[in-house]
Structures are given as structure tokens and as C-alpha cells.
Amino acid sequence: MSLSIEFVSVPLSEISSEEKFSFSIPSRKELIKESIRNFGILQPPVIAIFSEKLILIDGEARILAGIEAGIKETKCVVLKSISKKQALALALELNLSRGLNLAEKAEFIKKAKEVFSKDEIFYFLKKLGVSPSNQNFFFLLSLSKLETEFKELLAEEKLNPKAGQILAELEEKERKEFLALIKSLRLSFSEQLQVLEKLLDCKKRYEFKELIPPELKVVLKEEDFNKRKNEFMKKLNLLYYPNYFPKYQKVNSLVQSFKEKGIHISFPPYFEEKEVSLSLRVKSPEEYEKSVKDLESLLTKVVELFKIL
Question: What is the pTM of this model?
Fold first, then answer.
């Protein structure tokens, strides 16, 4: 890539914010503003001229921090006779060395889609460390549709990417509700995906008008975190497993009675079959004899188990 370059002093107010090629998420301004305030802009931003406007290619955080610090102008690398394809490719090259997070990769692919061919985009996927495929292309493209707060969570590795992909297809209101839910219940990666899939299934099955039905929203008003999370998960499971979960609650209390006697009980997943497996762990004939007697004393509870199943 042969470029026509000038190194000139540019007023920060003349750099257009209408279009930009940068894709940093979150903004790096807060990280460098103290340095900019103390020492000024030491590394020249890179800008290009398009339609007689100065468009930023690299250094958005430096420009924003400079404006905040009261800096009027700074030395810039100004590129002339450069295409938008070249500008975006250069922006990527200038940022690859610091390592891009998932949100930044998605943002770059969104920008690349506007100017590059499919084969060219696949080339950039490799540079981003992503296997070049339609699946990965559309995955990143879907993440780029999310609001800034979701993208920042992705960047901080606090949002399950698969959950993010699903959220991108929902209405904005539903995304905001789920974002509040993640914060309220401090959902882990696995919990985010499980809860979202269950909520969507229940919405479809029961024809709810909202992603989070009113009865679950009431639970979120509980002030105690542990109670709030436990009660929410319990009610969600009651909706999602209308037949299984009530049985599970009853069975679980009985299982504890056997566990106290050293007897382990297991069931087919979701109680598809009316079947119970019991196992004993003993280290001597005496322990075996005692366990058998304990099991006989619990016969009525075994009968109760089968009635529940």
C-alpha cells in the first residue's frame, strides 16, 4: 500500500466526527486522558482527506482526550489520495498489535461489510484470528447490532457471546430488560444463555407479550440478592418445566432422607420412566447389614417416591 503522507499540525476542531474508521470498544479516552493532560498528544493521530474533510483513521481517544484537556491543535499524519478500503485496512493494521476484543472484531466486520467483498472479508477474519466462514461472519455481524452497553460487556467478557447473538435478534425493549436482569441476578455466562433460552421458550409456549412475564418481574423487586436470584430461578423453572419441577421439589426432600443414611438415589432425566436406582457404598459386611436395615426402615419413603413419579 503506497500512501501520500504529510506530517502537519491540525486544529482538533477541524477533524470531522461525521465518519470515522476507528472501532475501539470501550473508548480508550479514560485510560489516556491523564497522560494527555500532563504531556499532550505524543503519538500523532492518523487522518485522511475525503471530500475535503479531515476524517479520523486512528487516534480517536487521543483526539477526545486532547479536546477535554483544552488542546487546540496537534501534529497529525495526514493521508492523501487514499480510498475508504485502504483507510479501513490501515485502521485495522494500526490496532492489531494491541489485540482486539470480540466487540471490536464485530465492529470492524460491520464497517468492512460496507466496502469489502466477501473474499476480502474472509481474509480479514483470518487476520482477526477468526476462522473464515459464513457462520462466523454472520455471528460477528449480529453482535455488531447490539447497543453500546452490550458491546462493552462483550469487551469485558461479561456477556455470553451466544446470548449476545440471540439478543441481537430481539426487540430493543427486550434487550434492555435482559440487560437489567443480568445485572440484577449477576448471571454467569452459562446462566445468561440458559435463562435467555428458557424465557424465549416460555414466551412462545405461553404466548407472553413480554420477554420477562409479570410474575417474574415481581420477584426482581426483592431486596435480598440471594432470595431474589433463588426465587427467580425457581419460578422460571416452574414455568419451563411445568410437570417436572414440582415433582423434583418433592422428590428432592425425600432424597435427603436417604442421603443421610448413606443411600444414593438417581432417576432418569426429567422422570421419563417410573424408575428409581438405589446404590449403597459400604466398606465391610457390618456396614452392608446396617445399610440394608436402614433401607428397610425407609420402605414407606420408597413407596412415596413412586407415588410422586
Answer: 0.77
